[in-house]
Predict the structure.
Amino acid sequence: MLAMPLMAMAAEVSSPSGNVQLKFYLDNGGRPTYEMSYKGRPVVLPSHLGLELARDKHASAGMDETDLMAGFQIADEQTTEFDETWQPVWGETKDIRNHYREYAVTLIRQWRSAPPVVGPGNPQLAPRQHLRNIVIRFRVYDEGIGLRYEFPQQQELNYFLIREERTEFRMAGDHTAWWLPGDYDTQEQETQQSKLSEIRQRFREAVNWGNSSVAVFSETGVQTALQMKSDDGLYINIHEAACADYATMHLELVDEQTKALTTELQGASNAYTPNPLPSAYPLPQPFTFVSHLTPDATGLKGAMQTPCQTPWRTVMVSDDARDMLSSNLILNLNEPCALDDTSWIHPTKYCGVWWEMIVGKSQWSYTWDYPSVYLSNIDYSKCKPNGRHGANNEKVKRYIDFAAKNGLDEVLVEGWNVGWEDWANMWKRDVFDFVTAYPDFDIKMLNEYAHSKGVRLLMHHETSSSTQNYERHMEQAFQLMNKYGYDAVKTGYVGDIIPRGDHHYSQSMNNHYLYVVKEAAKHHIMVNAHEATRPTGLCRTYPNLVGNESARGTEYEAFGGSRPDHTCILPFTRLQGGPMDYTPGIFVTRLSEWSDNDSWARITICGSLALYLTMYSPLQMAADLPEHYERFDDAFQFIRDVACDWDESIYLEAEPADYITVARKAKGTNNWFIGGKCDEQGHQSVIKLDFLDKGRKYDCTIYADAKDAHYETNPQAYVITKRVVKQGDKLKLNEAPGGGVAISLMARE
Amino acid sequence: MLAMPLMAMAAEVSSPSGNVQLKFYLDNGGRPTYEMSYKGRPVVLPSHLGLELARDKHASAGMDETDLMAGFQIADEQTTEFDETWQPVWGETKDIRNHYREYAVTLIRQWRSAPPVVGPGNPQLAPRQHLRNIVIRFRVYDEGIGLRYEFPQQQELNYFLIREERTEFRMAGDHTAWWLPGDYDTQEQETQQSKLSEIRQRFREAVNWGNSSVAVFSETGVQTALQMKSDDGLYINIHEAACADYATMHLELVDEQTKALTTELQGASNAYTPNPLPSAYPLPQPFTFVSHLTPDATGLKGAMQTPCQTPWRTVMVSDDARDMLSSNLILNLNEPCALDDTSWIHPTKYCGVWWEMIVGKSQWSYTWDYPSVYLSNIDYSKCKPNGRHGANNEKVKRYIDFAAKNGLDEVLVEGWNVGWEDWANMWKRDVFDFVTAYPDFDIKMLNEYAHSKGVRLLMHHETSSSTQNYERHMEQAFQLMNKYGYDAVKTGYVGDIIPRGDHHYSQSMNNHYLYVVKEAAKHHIMVNAHEATRPTGLCRTYPNLVGNESARGTEYEAFGGSRPDHTCILPFTRLQGGPMDYTPGIFVTRLSEWSDNDSWARITICGSLALYLTMYSPLQMAADLPEHYERFDDAFQFIRDVACDWDESIYLEAEPADYITVARKAKGTNNWFIGGKCDEQGHQSVIKLDFLDKGRKYDCTIYADAKDAHYETNPQAYVITKRVVKQGDKLKLNEAPGGGVAISLMARE
């Protein structure tokens, strides 16, 4: 038996204001248990914490114990308070306050080796007492909590494999949830709105089975950040923070029909080995979410070395939806900036040779000569061009001219490098080299041309998810970027992961994404990773991670379209972990006007303008074609004017899937910008300008939907109004169905 | 239906001398079938050829046909002859003749799409006719055949996944075989000698289950090169040539007990999903070997892009065992040298700080301070040294001095770089950085010291099978080697492969090994890869691949020992594909004489000397300690003298597992060396020196086992005799049990 004194008391910790209350204790079986409340109302009912380890074939005798679920005793407790204000390299506000109370409990677990066969040859196998300890750390904020598991370095927990993490979040009722089907390889589904009890019946129709990446695992599996609202008006959000070298977490809901965690989902395109709870443990109560990590190719969830820790599991809560958007809880739970020099990192507005390819009017590829392409065997200069290649010198110069004229910083060019003839879903390892341009893309000339006009090109590295190939070429690819003056790269991870059997959100892939960010930082390169795992605030630590896609972006407007409320949900869900390269700005929403694509974007022009405010990102694209912006140059003035880095942000109105209105003060200026975006219902409101400087006058330009504007029937109807305003003035705002409003407030003097 | 004329005749092709006969035809079901005979005696009875593809989730409608087994028609046939003599960069002979008759048959397979559900929305799904073609190419040599599948680029066979290759080799009788258990991750078992019909009952005892890498898949699965001998004295060997970016082949024997290909092997440490033959096909006849490829993490065997081909499947045959050793069939089936400049590649004799660590007297690691090590967190200069670290300045200088004094070219140093405290079987990705030396290894000083004495250090990169980590650091590691003047690296792949779920001999790993060789060539670095896949003659194409381990090497003499006949088998099996870094030269065979290790090597000193001839390699180690060689300096003279590159080689005597005697003429000289190695029975013979130059006199030194020498009781008893010999003289040779003989013949004038 252990000699040190053991404590059995329950701990209670309040947030600094007292709004959030956390309780922790061991239940009768020694299972770690926590509860959480907000202003006295339950948020998380008693929920267990723990992990199952996997039996490793290399484990030494007596060390194959896999239970980190129960049988714990408390060995130590520490409660502390922390209050600090820090400045992000870029962000929604100049200062971020990180104020929490912390409770760290050290738990020990003792067990005896199974009785071995003892003989003269193996006296070392005599049964003996073993001991492990872990720490569970809670941080309690006024707007929620973070909790994580920590594994100190110790003889009996050194290297270990995770079979599953079993962190529970037992909800207090049948909340409304905005959810995506839990999936190991895609995050690009449309958000579902339903009661928790309806998830199972809605699940199959929620999956876009036509997406070749679909890898769902449970009929109640959902992704984070998961936004919920209780019947009595509490907003609750579950996500994670600082997910580095650990598998991305999904949540599996226990409902009345749940028989086991996890049953195989019949019909799923990727086979999955069920991972039931050990039979020793009863199923959690209905309305409990249980963590479900993304597996590696062998079905396991993590290979760990102590000392180490899991990401933070976060539960945000408020009775005001705006707090869900203004909270910095996720960023605060990440580590401070790890880069010594961040002077080369800058918010960026850009346009690009991209939308016309997404729509299908031009191509990434250069030739149609070959049914398949070996990069090493083909001389592209001798191929017959297909005449549709988008990334050609003439077109890129046109975009550079447009960017220079309109104050855009960079020009993205996709399809500049050889290999696009066959690149996706081929299980093709050596798919791109990231350094060889097509014959009609003169990389030296175009970069020099851009630089002469004060513009940079923005690099594109589609990896086709062949991560081994990308890692083999990355250093040379970054050297090429340095040579020609690129300072940012958009990466892509379309299709199945190579090495085969791995998934987009596994521990190994999460390590890869961060490896790329770190290597890029050595070259002073900013990264905007598409199809990579959903962010968890790592941009605080590595601020050259300026963007991610990791959700359904504007490209889907060319793939059948997204619902009008889509962008009123994303800030509550996807954006909790970091900015999204949503690529807004579609002015000509009926694609058939200029292409063979009959998709259409369900948004008005003013709705598009509003996204530059409501979808916060330091990287903002003007995604439509230059000629489309030239047709609506008076509206485009807002995109020319709008900032993408801020000293202050005030969420004025918010309701998930309905509307969001935000005012932001541009970095280092006295200018403000306001954006309001609404769903298919339209939105009307009166905004009081009490955040403006007292005594200062502002030239106010309002880009508003016309009275008869409508995302379907009349999306290009807008009215631009100019007036002078001051602190305390009120603005009456009208947003059409699927529309929005955008306002610039330029300070006089 | 296809319009082109189809041929139905059987083809017969003879080797240039007529000794080997090949027959090819389609059977009634359109299955490709071949037969092979030698001097009229059957070698391969009628055997099928074919592959099964896997259904890919991305296959377009109608393109999910997976059968490449039957239903073929012959569309074209080509028979040609080829005769060329080429010069290897290094080798057993100066010239190699490549003389064969070739037969290439183009096979087409047509099928109709399954009837689809046709509707207004999917008219493109109407059933239609499909067509694929493949080529099977045979090369018929006087000492055997090679055959391979080729997949031309075509619309209906572009990218594809291999479920299994089903190449059959139906043996004509119950031959004696020298076999290793088929295994996805280790080749380091002792060879079994048994009848084919005894493999199943011998299988479990043939597996060293204590080896943590064991991943066997079938109770009749064996490795190649598989050496056999028929009851009527035919020597038959099955292997493969030019295995690049394709999974390594095993063979699964169909015997009377076979119920299905492949049944899961209960008790194997790695789970394996059985891969039975499609039910449409009957089991092959008993005594048929069927190819079985190494799977990737998902259980599939290959991801291919046309145009492409499989490796050559080889069947060597002769009625004289010596032809098995002198044949260049495997090298000839490989592509010519792909390197423009090979001037930097050189055969090498070396010693190293290695054996004392293998034996356990010193350590690779530097400190015992930590239960686990994070390279990024530890300052080794502040650690407490364990006092056992082998790769220290003083010791390395001692080895450099020894090498310089004795004409050895290089000194291997293992354990020079940080991370050896915990490196194997931990699932630890970031295990080594390959550039940071331990504090007591002054890399600059030691290289300068070595160079000042005309010696180089030989680099060591143990990857711990964390291939992702190695590929991330490789370029920097090679740059470090260039900086300090290393020109060769010994790599290692101990433990489980990372990425998890992959195997040592999979397509992906075979690609990795060759990737390393190619990248090394760019840096003028020679590679000697341990635990990598068994070689298949790729050293012809990439002659900087100067060695491989890929079998049970001398290290096992410290792990319990190997049988005395072990080195009389390896040249017939493992060495068919390329040289082995066997690390011979153990003089003090009782390890307990100088360490706590009670293993002992089952060989006499003269047996050890003989290995420098009988185990051909351009890379030869003097593996024992300098002080041991100094004790037997007169015997060590042979190691000082012996060459490791040759103009000519004559196998004088050979019988698998019994004895091998070979004479070799040292490159660019008139000197000859003879080595004879025998099993536990001893061996006596009379060698006639008719290969010497007429009229020339030679100073002959014979290193022979003493009369009472014996590998167990008297291994260090030898007699050195000097005399002058000339062409036609006879030498009477006596080899003790587990012994051998070594002879130098130094030409006068």
Observations:
- Chain B has twelve helices and 37 strands.
- Confidence is low (pLDDT under 50) at residues 1-7, 118-123 of chain B.
- Chain B touches chain A at residues 56-58, 153-155, 158-159, 161, 212, 269, 296-298, 300, 303, 305-306, 370-372, 374, 422, 425-429, 468, 471-472, 475, 496, 499-502, 508, 511, 515 (CB under 8 Å).
